[in-house]
């Protein structure tokens, strides 16, 4: 069963094209994480928040990633990371065209 990790945190920027350019290497490195399937990057310059929605193969790989990522963000000076992990209901997600495969 696949698992979603939802992560968000306060961040002063950069956002948009600057964020894409600055975090490109980080984005590429996420592809190598165990159990990783995909990520949707999220940002809100208005509320100074960023994060992502991730899909992992198992609950364990999602939990391991969230732990590592929270520690990495702390190293960047980002604290107060909100993270939740949810099981995916594949039957209902398929009806709504969710990319869980």
TrEMBL record:
<dbReference type="Pfam" id="PF08803">
    <property type="entry name" value="ydhR"/>
</dbReference>
<keyword id="KW-0560">Oxidoreductase</keyword>
<protein>
    <submittedName>
        <fullName>Monooxygenase</fullName>
    </submittedName>
</protein>
<dbReference type="GO" id="GO:0004497">
    <property type="term" value="F:monooxygenase activity"/>
</dbReference>
<keyword id="KW-0503">Monooxygenase</keyword>
<dbReference type="InterPro" id="IPR014910">
    <property type="entry name" value="YdhR"/>
</dbReference>
<dbReference type="InterPro" id="IPR011008">
    <property type="entry name" value="Dimeric_a/b-barrel"/>
</dbReference>
